[in-house]
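Quick one: structure for this chain?
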Amino acid sequence: FCIWSDDGAAGLLRLTDGQRSTFPLGDIAALFIDRNGLPAIISGRNGGWLRLDAAGQKQAGPLDAQHIRVPAGSDRRAPTTGAMQTSRGKWRLVDLATLKPLGRNLFDDILTDEGGRFRVLQGALWSAIDARSGKLLFAPRFRGLGPFGAGLAPASLDGRLWGYINVDAEWVLPPKYSSAGPFRARMARVNLAEGGTGFIDA
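Got it. Here's what it folds into:
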């Protein structure tokens, strides 16, 4: 399948036989293809979400979802796990193929991350979770937690001083920066507590 759109409508095109499924654009807020190349989820502008079957047709019954976040896939494979916000405002991890929950934990927020991890907020504290098992990698204890890159993430215990932790929440660089950015191409930008800006490598 691939996604198509033109004036006033959008939908799915089945590449094997050219069959099209059409939905009015006014009814669609999001539409994506799952990791197996099958149509996955359609969301309406009224906030409802529906599964699509292998023919690209709507399945009966809306999902209990306000939003669904899908991490970017790699060049080799599409993501298998996403984050879904329920009608009560809480977030949980779900298998994107079935939309079944992964684990029983509910969170106040879930942010997508690299390397099969998600950053999760419980109350006022951040932690990270393994996307495949749904298990917490470490207990929530950080007031701030940035994206992982090169195996390190900027983190803060008090929201004022920042350092870098590994995936086991061990300090690799202790909190001493007034702000710290994520590693990109093994480089990260930091602001020193005493003033000034610099770059550090991984």
